[in-house]
User: Fold these one by one.
Assistant:
Number 1:
Amino acid sequence: MKTISLTVNGKAVTAAVEPRTHLADFLREGQLLTGTHLGCEHGVCGACTLLIDGSPARSCITYAVACDGAEITTIEGLDEDATMRRLRDAFSREHGLQCGYCTPGMLITARDIVTRLPDADDRRVRFELSGNLCRCTGYVGIVRAVRRVIEERQKNGSAARPEAGTTPGTSLGPVGSGHARTMPANGPIKRQMATATTTAPAAEPTRSPSGQAKPGMEIRQSFTVNHPPDRVWAFFDQIDQVAACMPGASLTTPPRDDHVAGKIRIKLGPISADFAGDADIERDAANKRGVIRGGGLDTRSRSSARGEIRYALFEEKGGTATRVEVDVGFTLTGPLAQFSRSGIVNDLASRLTAAFAQNLRVRMDRAAGGSPAEPEPSTEQTAELNAGALVLSVLWARIKSLFGALFRR
Ligand code: FES
Ligand code: FES
């Protein structure tokens, strides 16, 4: 247990907390402030958004102990806030809520938008709200409500006045480790955010055989192609062809033998990320194996990925087919790090591998002069990696198997 002292909605609070307790649990269970909702507890949905030292933050991924000395404002603390009152009215008027589960987090983000971006248009409001998910409304009413309040503030001149009791943040992102008043402008939080873009976490305890920091997530997949190993190996030599098999991937410069630069577009609901990066390739032709090591960065979400893909080809069906075994190890940092959690990632990886294998088989069948045994992937399927659709199909498959198991009893 660690004793922390902080200010919650203007009141001094001192409490002993377990280091593992996140701020949302601390507030909901310790302080009985249940207006902060919990949805995903992975930093994705935004339901738990509140203000730490005036900046919006996900309380489900912020440890309470990291908020020692900080000033926390929850939705309850904004009851009498003039801007929040206007936002509440606008949300009711414009039908910006249905079940209301996302609404506390949505209102906190909305308040940040109207105070920080007094000229935000629809597009900007949508972009700023992209970290808050709503299952009910379709967002149209929410965006309209935020825009109404921006317009009201422009008309009555309050857009130019700073909001009482808040320090509008200059960027979204992790806050709460240390707190703003004692932190120099270029202090640890900002430095950490700048370096997180290109490097793996500093203190990794173990190393992989290649000497790289041990990745946060490791996945093993395999698939079979009905072509002999020599032909598959030759196909793997054509980096542009291989990249074209990966949904969402494209090359940004012509590939060299041992180096490749490209990007991959991933979509998860309203979030889309363009990871741009490069990788080095090592190939062992004698043993038909290779390693691709590299990293990428999505500047918009400030998420970065580093990883290593090892692949090996094995002869099957008397040399007429090839089994491709792939080991992927990667570490994601930043807001999109929720991708590297839970068993769903493994399901996701197997569907992704299946999509890659299907594209590979179609291209190889075509290159060999035959007509592909499988349907050609559509442009939509290859233009971006729709992780949201894949996650939904994974969840749907899991729900079906759960019902199947229940009815078999
Ligand atoms: Fe915190 Fe979803 S509960 S982001
Ligand atoms: Fe139901 Fe947003 S109103 S989740």
Number 2:
Amino acid sequence: MSPSLNTVSSGSTKDEGGGVAPQNKGSWSSFLKSIASFNGDLSSMTAPPFILGTLSLTEFSAYWTQHPSVFVAPAAEKDPAKRAMLVLKWFLSTLKPSYSTRNDKYGSEKKPLNPFLGELFLGKWEDEAGTTELVSEQVSHHPPVTAYCIQNRKHGIKLEGYNGQKASFSRTIHIKQIGHALLTLTPPDNPSAPAETYLITLPNIHIEGLIYGKPFVELNSCTYISSSTGYTGKIDYSGKGWVSGKKNSFTATLYPTGKEKDILYTVDGQWPEAFTIREGSGKHGTVIDNYNSRNAPITPLIVPALEQQDPWEANKAWEKVITAITKGDMDTTNAEKSKIENAQREYRRREQSEGREWERKFFTRSDKAEDWWESLAKGMGERIEAEKTGGVWRFDKAKAETARRPFHEGLSPTG
Ligand code: HC3
């Protein structure tokens, strides 16, 4: 049975001992040799059995909201600058769940399952923030792209986004994240005003500790959050250098867009541990919040029981593969994966010969981003690279209202 059925945080198989077990040392060095020339989609990275994870990338979308009350907090703040700061705080609080939950004690980051086109991951969180709903769908296979929408209707807040990854090797594995997230909220001081938006860029990643067989994620350079209310959050990531520095560190600043020197808030810390939010610039401003990433209460994601899941839902679709990986049974793992891959090839062949496309259940593609979206990106020196994600993927409310199980009647991921 999948270890990831009820909560995302209990998802991956952990190597509690840390490092590669003696019997796996040979296949680990073969893996390191094989990735030295690696370049491309994560799906083409072949990994030895003991580093195969049991979480699919569609499930990773849930890491955005392990703390629903932090997610909805901006919706209650009347001052726009403080609201932007709370959005920044929430984003920083998602870094530990996203990039180190699976890897808490020792470097043991595993290779996730590569979603197939049409794979769904649906769930919700219920807590003092009310109900927060999650929809995640694999919307493209070539290039691989996952889209998601997370919304809390009570607080009028919605996060939608899509992302793909491009991997390359140079001293270690580098992963470029392509895509964006967009947070939309209704300002509480003026509920009749148009919703405000925050465009969020995604950090690039490299893997540390490969040589020691203890892989963990480190984030690179910087990302931005640009708001329609005229504020920019800039997050600079850094790691442990040869001489100084601590792993998984960052410094973030919030300033009026275009005035990078007029810092309103500064945040610094280590994202898997803790961070401090101060007023103004540098280390001397008044502390207004200390956030402890380790103790922050996690609300478990509720996903339907396996028997109630549709064949296109991740846990159901990957059930046999997950069981086989958990048992270390590689023959069955490969046989069950092949069933999915072969059926997917057949679906694509048929669609091509019939001149139609796979039907996405919750998201719709457009060829380019709307102008206001491009202009938020431009303010951060970025561009919406629609050509790299098979288009721009937006949550489609009309589709979502009619989508229900069985999602693709008569069809299953294995054909
Ligand atoms: C790089 C990564 C796969 C991609 C994961 C992404 C970028 C997926 C989208 C989420 O929103 C955020 C996210 C978090 C973690 C990222 C994974 C960490 C490790 C994994 C590599 C492919 C694993 C490499 C295998 C090994 C054995 C070297 O660790």
